[in-house]
TrEMBL record:
Region feature (Disordered): 308-333
TM stretches of this protein: none
Superkingdom of origin: Bacteria
Gene source species: Nonomuraea monospora
Residue intervals of the Xylulose 5-phosphate/Fructose 6-phosphate phosphoketolase N-terminal domain: 26-387
Record Gene3D superfamilies: 3.40.50.920, 3.40.50.970
Protein name: Phosphoketolase family protein
Entry keyword Transcription regulation: no
Length: 809
């Protein structure tokens, strides 16, 4: 045990090293082969970082053989290669199905190199052959224009985990293991990554992994001591403290540590054997006798030097085992002859002439160490989830329709209708076991509780008689962590399943960066032909900013809309269904879609229902429509257009149109509702966008537009930019005004009430200029009355609270 040691001592006697080299499951021949394979993997890693030519040093290294820009991360790569090599041994000996998730994602050259060594890379990228020419191209592709990124990413065979942002490896790993009973997910957790919030929460996932029906996650905590320049906190902890930490999270820690390769090889091989047997024993017991308590899963703690096998010193300062080996140990090899010579010595220390034949192919005895076919981690079909994706059996969403005989008369909790549909999706797909709902302890709160008629909350641990719908066999995933819910769903969909992440709107921002990274993954996957389409990531936001009746300002924030608007239109979709029937139509579409991040925003409180099902379907197919029943322009040229997107904005807009009929009966008003927000883009900026002709047909050529929007006003101005005469569009939306108050007071605070919208419409119609002051005063008087009533009675006026559409008196 190394305890608090900053670096790993090499002061181990030769006798002790010999003892360690023989005290393990590897024969001398196996040990030699594995050491040489590791050397080959490390060589290919260094070559990718540094070389653009002469990749096997068939001639002396010259400055022109080195890339002009050196990009990549060496420090974590030897450890990643070591783990990969030993997992390959386990796969071959046990015929295990394993995928590899690299938390230290900037170890990209290691994972790319492994895929090349076992032949998968050449299968996916035929130009990158498994010989000298292919290695040269592999090196020239790494971190260069039109090449591959420096981190583990979409083009890397075997990856389901984007390495650009730290903290997600464990949540993705558990998501991949859910409902994958034969799969082992090896999740390498970097010691720097272990400091991140998402990773900290993800350790608790053992409370949700059911060994009777799920696969297994094997965390490998790789401690090499440093981040970019500072120490990694957990690396300075004693083994005793790390063991206690892991034990408290449901793991049994197995420590492997050292800097003498033979001993580490033997220890890691023996440890992996023990961990695999422990995993299979847990699963056998659960599958024979059931799950009665949370098992203690194995986890490996691997302490090895940062930049192991790299330069011991550079310019007289320690490199191996320190932060100086984090990225490129020697960055000026083209201009510094001493560093160029040191690089050549480093590369030749791996003895490439003994690892690769005259054609540059890995020698046969080493190539034989890799698994074959789909057992290769770089070719496992679970790492290309579209290959194993089974379509959901989805019931007809029309069966859950709200009967709407007249618009804006009846009220329903719209998400409850979707909850009934999700309930039946669970039932219809029970045998396939390929659907889960993920929610931060809010399934009932968000009106999706009908799922509990057929499904339970998942919890693997001690249960009490007073628990509600709680079982190890449940597939409703509730945990009070947006990071964990989002990460689980990402891992679940990327390995070929379907799901929904439902959360309070404001707190979706907690995991917004995860949604961004996933969108980037999907965007890049479209450029990788061998990546099969996966089910979309469906995010349902409810408990929205306009109706947090008992929470207040902290729970009010529609910012995820803005985040998703900034992503490429090829992968992001934002839907704002105004009622239950539109929600059902949108939900059906999103659950059937592939390779998108779908954001659906609708509140959970009782709300007016506007469209019968057939009308709702047409409206959702169009994405934006003129609502003739709320308009009075008789299909002609209106004086003003009232636009809206979102459930509360729609209600206030329709109420404003109704109110304007009463106080200005000669005003011609058109109401336009948007359910697919992307329809407001010009068509050249988004595939769902409208042409100028379509935009004019909806919003006219030059008439004023008063637009009520669910989110921040600036978003609409950004979206419509490029359409004709957009300066005439005035937007009302959430303006960071909030508190615990009545529903109508929320729209008043943000100046989006029906009376604010009516007044704005009146002010913007030139022919009403003489009458406008009196008409606007009427609107302002109604606002004042509503404010006074709410302060006195703590509720909204009945004529506002209970407002429904009625025909003219």
């Amino acid at each position: 045990m190394y305890g608090f040691d900053v670096t790993i001592s090499s002061a181990v006697s030769a006798q002790e090293q010999r003892r360690r080299a023989t005290a393990g499951p590897l024969s001398p021949e196996e040990l030699d082969l594995m050491q040489r394979y590791w050397q080959a993997a490390n060589y290919v890693t260094v070559a990718q970082i540094y070389l653009q030519d002469n990749p096997l040093l068939r001639e002396p290294l010259r400055r022109e053989h080195v890339k002009p820009r050196l990009l990549g991360h060496w420090g974590t790569s030897p450890g990643l290669n070591l783990i990969y090599l030993h997992l390959n041994r386990l796969i071959k000996e046990e015929d295990a199905s394993v995928i590899y998730l690299a938390g230290p994602g900037h170890g990209g050259p290691a994972l790319v190199g492994q895929a090349w060594l076992e032949g998968t890379y050449s299968e996916f990228y035929p130009a990158v052959t498994s010989d000298l020419a292919g290695l040269r191209l592999l090196c020239r592709r790494f971190s260069t224009p039109d090449g591959v990124p420096s981190h583990v990413s979409v083009p890397t065979p075997g990856s389901v985990h984007e390495g650009g942002e730290l903290g997600y490896v464990l949540s993705h790993a558990f998501g991949a293991a859910f409902d994958n009973p034969d799969l082992i997910v090896a999740a390498v957790v970097g010691d720097g990554e272990a400091e991140s919030g998402p990773l900290a929460g993800a350790w608790r996932s053992t409370a949700f992994l059911n060994p009777a029906r799920d696969g297994a996650v094997l965390p490998i905590l790789h401690l090499n001591g440093y981040k970019i320049s500072g120490p990694a906190v957990i690396s300075r902890d004693s083994d005793t403290d790390i063991e206690a930490f892991l034990r408290g999270n449901g793991y049994q820690a197995h420590f492997v540590e050292g800097d003498d390769p033979p001993g580490v090889h033997q220890e890691l091989a023996a440890t992996l054997d023990r961990c695999h047997e422990q995993i299979r024993a847990i699963q056998r017991e659960a599958r024979r006798h059931g799950v009665f308590d949370r098992p203690r899963w194995p986890a490996i703690v691997l302490r090895t030097p940062k930049g192991w096998t790299g330069p011991k010193e550079v310019d007289g300062r320690p490199a191996e085992g320190t932060f100086r080996s984090h990225q490129v140990p020697m960055s000026d090899t083209r201009t510094n002859p001493a560093h160029l010579a040191q690089l050549e010595d480093w590369l030749r220390s791996y003895r490439p002439e003994e690892l690769f034949d005259e054609n540059g192919r890995l020698v046969p005895e080493l190539a034989a160490l890799a698994p074959a076919g789909e057992r290769r981690m770089s070719a496992n079909p679970h790492a290309n989830g579209g290959k194993v994706l089974i379509d959901l059996n989805i019931p007809d969403f029309r069966d859950y329709a709200v009967k709407v005989e007249q618009p804006a008369v009846i009220r329903r909790e719209s998400p409850r209708q979707l909850g009934m549909m999700l309930r039946d999706i669970y039932s219809r797909n029970a045998e396939a076991a390929n659907f889960r709902l993920f929610c931060p302890d809010e399934t009932n709160s968000n009106r999706l509780g009908n799922v509990f008629e057929v499904e339970n909350r998942c919890f693997v641990g001690r249960t009490l008689d007073i628990d509600d719908h709680l079982s190890p066999d449940g597939r409703v995933m509730e945990v009070l962590s947006e990071h964990l819910c989002e990460g689980w769903l990402e891992g679940y969909t990327l390995t070929g399943r379907h799901g929904v992440f439902a959360t309070y709107e404001a707190f979706a921002m907690v995991s917004a960066s995860m949604a961004v990274q996933h969108a980037k993954w999907l965007q890049e996957a479209r450029n990788v032909p061998w990546r099969e389409p996966v089910a979309s990531l469906n995010i349902l936001l409810t408990s929205t900013c306009w109706r947090n009746d008992h929470n207040g300002f902290s729970h009010q924030g529609p910012g995820l809309i803005d985040v998703m608007l900034s992503k490429r239109g090829t992968v992001t979709r934002i839907y704002l269904p105004p009622d239950a029937n539109c929600l059902l139509s949108v939900g059906d579409h999103c659950l059937r879609s592939r390779d998108y991040v779908n954001l659906i925003v609708i509140d959970k409180q009782p709300q007016l229902q506007f469209l019968d099902m057939e009308t709702a379907i047409r409206h959702c197919e169009n994405g934006v429509s003129i609502w003739h029943q709320a308009s009075n322009d008789d299909g002609g040229d209106p004086d003003v257009v009232l636009g809206c997107a979102g459930d509360i904005p729609t209600m206030e807009t329709v109420a404003a149109a109704w109110y304007l009929r009463r106080i200005v009966p000669d005003l011609r008003v058109r109401v336009v509702n948007v359910v697919d927000l992307m329809r407001l883009f010009p068509v050249e900026y988004h595939p769902h966008g409208t042409t100028d002709k379509e935009f004019v047909e909806l919003f006219t050529e030059d008439k004023p537009v008063v637009f009520a929007f669910h989110g921040y006003r600036r978003a609409i101005h950004e979206i419509v930019h490029g359409h004709p005469h957009v300066g005439r569009i005035h937007v009302r939306g959430f303006n960071e005004q909030g508190t615990t108050t009545t529903p109508f007071q929320m729209v008043v605070l943000n100046e989006m009430s029906r009376f604010h919208l009516a007044a704005e419409a009146i002010r913007r119609v030139p022919r009403l200029s003489n009458r406008a002051p009196d008409l606007v005063a009427q609107c302002e008087a109604r606002i004042a009355e509503a404010n006074a009533y709410a302060r006195e009675h703590f509720e909204d006026q009945p004529e506002i609270r209970d407002w429904v559409w009625t025909d003219h008196d």
